[in-house]
Amino acid sequence: MGFVIGVDVGGTFTDVVLRTEMVRRGTSGAFAVAKVLSTHYDPIAGILAGVTRALGDRDPTQVERVVHATTLATNAVLERTGVRVAHVTTQGFRATIPLGRYARVEEDRYDLRFTPPPPPVAPGDCFEVVERISAGGTVLTPLDPGSVRKAAAEIARRGIESAAVCLLHSYANPTHERQVAAILRESVKNVVTSSDVWPEIREYERATTTIMSAYIGPLMASYLSRLRERLAEIGIGAPIHVMESGGGVISAELAARRAVATIESGPAAGVLAAAGAGFPDAISFDMGGTTAKTCVVRGGRPEITHEFHVGGKGSFGGRRAGTGVPIKTPAIDLAEVGAGGGSVAWLDPAGALRVGPRSAGSSPGPACYGLGGREPTVTDANLVLGYLSSASIPLSHGLAGEALDRLAGPLGVPRERAAYAVHEIVSASMASAVHVVTVQRGIDPRGFALVAFGGAGPTHAARVAGRFGIGTVVVPPYCGVASAAGLLSGQLSTDRVLSRLDAPDPEALFASLASEAATDLGISPGAPGVRVSRSVDVRFTGQSHDLTVPWSADRALLESRFFQRYAEVYGFTQRGEIELVGYRVRVTTPADDTDPAMGTAADLATATAVSAEDGASGTGAGVRLAYFPETGGYGEVPVHIRSSMGACLRGPAVVEDAESTIVVPPGWSATLTESRAVRLTRSRP
What we know:
This is Hydantoinase/oxoprolinase family protein. The chain is an alpha/beta fold. Helices cover 29% and strands 27% of the residues. The strands form nine sheets. Strands 13, 14, 15, 20, 23, 24, 32, 35 and 36 form a nine-stranded mixed sheet that branches. It has a seven-stranded mixed sheet with strand order 12-11-4-1-2-3-29. A four-stranded parallel sheet has the order 6-5-9-10, with helices on both faces.
């Protein structure tokens, strides 16, 4: 029987989960997990190290599928390391991208010397072609092939090898875009058209989405090609699948063609793991080495957005319009902050303590790793406080203490007070992300369970939950590799969209979109096991913004769904005439006959852990000094191993696992569930 492997590359660690393929409903497959330090100079080196550890003595030729979550696309946008792109548009609209759109936030509001960020394409690399199509799809000005060849010659002369074509109203009629692309491909290596990437209204957003696909597509294609070759060197010839931003899985070939769909690939996998934790209404809380991410799960399904922003200041991972580059593609609706175990604590010029967003990452890493890092980090602070021990990697108390002393001295406080201040500040920073996805949307978080995972999440989860009055925290088994496990529950899927104002024949339009999406997956939309979900973008007549609701041919039912969704989003009810703006399909097919609920908490309960360092292991049950201000500071607290903890224990206490530590503060109790998840419950005041 073959295996499937999930690989999640984080800022500090690379996580690998191996599972027996074709797990039948009601049975539990063989699992193995591995956690190794990420190798930023070559991410594939870390992947190979983790995969080799997880395989052990298993035959690599028996691996049938590798599912990968990657931050390659996100990092390329944030660090501006994508390829040079030429933007080709309709005559008269060359300045759309250079003018751009930017919202001043935080300190920018008061900066008299404010300089907006550079546009995704330099003004000189924007080109016009003679043509014009109306919003209804009528050709107003025929395409002039000579203008296209002139632009193509200049693009080639400049050595630009990637072009993004976004013509006015091409969603209504893509003929001109396809003709332009055909001419450009004679001299330009990579050409992407908006009608292929995301044919939706709103010119600026459609253009930036197309540009980002052209910007990162060659990088993604090269990376996945090299990954395939390197895996083949160790005997794995299985197909590679990539997690997309919306929580589905696509082939490596499709990921290279539609790279923009993978920008939120990494964070999406963890939300799927949280959704499978057994709580229909939950808040996913994923804290790794560099960032913390939150998402609301309602009715067992994560919230999905159809527009997010990348690379913006104060955007909370795409939450704030006008900060960063807008991307029009389905994505799990996350809020993200630069707060993780490797986040560096520092003093600003005024002497105030700050934490993050800069992270020590895996190299040099926190001071306690003993790899050359000297700056104090969140991990160092938690070690000084007695919340951590050597588990997936040996940790040095001495080095952590020396790093914290660099803060304690200037602040004039004892080492433990400085460490706890770091702990509190980073918890408050993460709470801001929870606030964004709940309170700011009118959602009362007290009715939700907080599902914590990531290497650092369980250490801070109870403190974060307490700020909102959340009374239940759930820590899944092997939570340190939960994102990699979530990859195994993703199913092959892809989306298609088309803007049409009140299309006269929606059924025919949906059928066409479903056929295109099925072609992307290499299947037939009518094949057994294939699911096609349909939805529409609806707005009140005369308004400019719309909301997505499930499709119904019954107009009264469709209106009712829109009115209900409108009340959920905006907090008040409204009635009126509606109009349909866009049509969407999502085609999903199981990658195998795996039960999607398997491969998360239930199967991880039987997993075999492989540590990042040979011989590293957690301490046994006992007591150790830990700092809890509620009980007066340092004191002896019980330390439990998850696998052998009692039926119920009361805080203060520490529960250790292979890759993470669960802190149970005073006023909280912890129980071990049948699936080996730890459930923390807050005592009522």
